[in-house]
Every structure is written in C-alpha cells, then in structure tokens.
C-alpha cells in the first residue's frame, strides 16, 4: 500500500507539500499540485482519514443520539438527517439510547473519542444525569431536536401542546363531545404537553373530561391496542379518541375492528405525527403532521452553521419552532 512518502518521492516534492495539496492548507504552485495529484492517482494512494482529520481539525462526521431508531417517527427523521448529511459530504454516527442515562453517557464518550464535528440530540426526555453528561460535551457544537432541556444549546421545538390542541379541536369541530385520549406516559414531557393541549380544547368547549377514558401507554402499537380494549370494556363509550401518536392509533383501530365495530362509523380516531404509513391505514388516518424532512434539514443546517463558527463563543442560541398541522383523511366522522 502506497504511503505519503511514496507520493512525495514520485512527485519530487516533500511530504509536507503533499499534505498541503491533499488538505488544501497552503497555496501550492499549479505545476507542483498537478505532479502530486498525478502521483496519487498512479500509486492509488488513499490518505488516512484519521491522520487527515488531525491535520485539518475536522472529521466530516456528526453524531446523532436518539431514543430509538425503530419508531417510525424517529426512523423518518433519521433518514432525513442522514440524507442531508450525505449531500453535504458528512457521515452520521447513530446511537440509540432507549432513554437509558448510562447509554447516553457511553455514547457521548464514544462520539467524543471519534472526534465528531457536531452532535444532534433527540432523546424525548432528559434526566438530570443526562443533562450533566450533555453539558460536559459543550465544547462540541450541539443541536437539540425536540422539546429540549434548559441547556446552553440550540433547540428545535416541536410544539406538542399546539398539536394536541389542534387534534382535539378537530374532533370537537366535527361534533364530538364524548372524547377519549390514549397518551404516552404523562410524566414525560411530549405526552404531557399533548395531553395539556387536549385539556385546553375540551375546557374551551365546556366539555367534560372522563378520567376513565384517559389511558397511558408507551407510544407503541401494543399500548394503543391494550388501552383501546380497556375503554371498550366500559358501559359508556366515547364517540372519538385522540391517540397521541400514529402507531398507537393503529393499535386502537385493530382493537375496535376486533369488536366488530367500525372506524369512523362507531368510533372516530385521530393520530399524531403523520408517519408515512398512516395514509395506508384502514381507514386512512386523520392525524397531526410534523414535517420530518424539514425538521431534519433545519437541525443539520443549524448544526453546520455552529460547526463553521465553533470558535465564536458569543453566538446567539436559536430556538426554531416546528408548527404542527392538521391532516384530514377518513378516520374521523363528522357528526354535524
């Protein structure tokens, strides 16, 4: 395997000159540059990525810490981030945490050793231990891609409260008064803010909130299925249920159809996230849209901006808001 010394010998220059040509760190005469490039081509020389990163102080890579890449919502965002990185010539190191503080710590330490140029964080929930770990990584540019802790980082907010309000308001506007909710764990920020949006819409319409129609799960289809079955065992049933993500809505629809009931004729369902598959549910799911591609692109662009200006300690921190939108399909019946 050819070395930088072999290239220098063939081109008749020093190894330092070869390094300047490869890394573009100093002006080199055109004839000399051409000689070096010809030698590299002839010898099929491939410079060490590690050595080069030490020279130019960049690895052209970023790290991304997420709760899980299995969730369709996270998977679509990860795809958008990876695609945007690829088009900019960057590699992406993806780390799943399952919201385990120890995993977050280990992943952060690993990414630091790999000398990533920046870090994207999308963990849904943050313990104090996790915040301390992220704070210790403050020398590396960082963008938080969800509700965001109160840290000294750039943050992209998803406005879950507004989304929860929009979903419930749509059910009310369609004439529904008996409305249930299948949420994530209500001690978690994302689930709680969507629930609070639900409460606001119900209170504005002077509608009662039936506690026995409020169910908690873990944002998985199994939880939507089990929570819906608990609602269906009751004597009085809601005419509509707001499921706080689309995969729980899928589980809820399965439970309803197993009881020989129909969506939306018997019970209307609205979801949240507008994942790609939601349009292919039976019936196609009315849901709250969050642009995963826009979120991914904005996060990466903001991170690249921070990487380019990482020596500037006085730059203003940004909070970029993603605004949820209602997508109307076939799973909500208009009772008016």
Automatic annotation (TrEMBL):
Complexes and interactors: Homodimer.
CDD domains in UniProt: HTH_LacI (cd01392), PBP1_PurR (cd06275)
DNA-binding positions: 4-23, 48-56
Gene3D superfamilies with a match to the protein in the record: 3.40.50.2300, lambda repressor-like DNA-binding domains
Function: Is the main repressor of the genes involved in the de novo synthesis of purine nucleotides, regulating purB, purC, purEK, purF, purHD, purL, purMN and guaBA expression. PurR is allosterically activated to bind its cognate DNA by binding the purine corepressors, hypoxanthine or guanine, thereby effecting transcription repression.
HAMAP family for the chain: HTH_type_PurR
InterPro entries tied to this protein: HTH_LacI, LacI/GalR-like_sensor, Lambda_DNA-bd_dom_sf, Peripla_BP_I, PurR_sensor_dom, Tscrpt_reg_HTH_PurR
Pfam family, one: LacI
Keywords: DNA-binding, Purine biosynthesis, Repressor, Transcription, Transcription regulation
PROSITE patterns: HTH_LACI_1, HTH_LACI_2
Protein residues bound to hypoxanthine: 73, 188, 190, 219, 273
Domain comment as written in the entry: Consists of two structural and functional domains: an N-terminal DNA-binding domain, approximately the first 60 residues, and a larger C-terminal domain, approximately 280 residues, which imparts the function of corepressor binding and oligomerization.
Protein's UniProt name: HTH-type transcriptional repressor PurR
UniProt keyword Transcription present: yes
Pathway(s) of this molecule: Purine metabolism; purine nucleotide biosynthesis [regulation]
Domain HTH lacI-type positions: 2-56
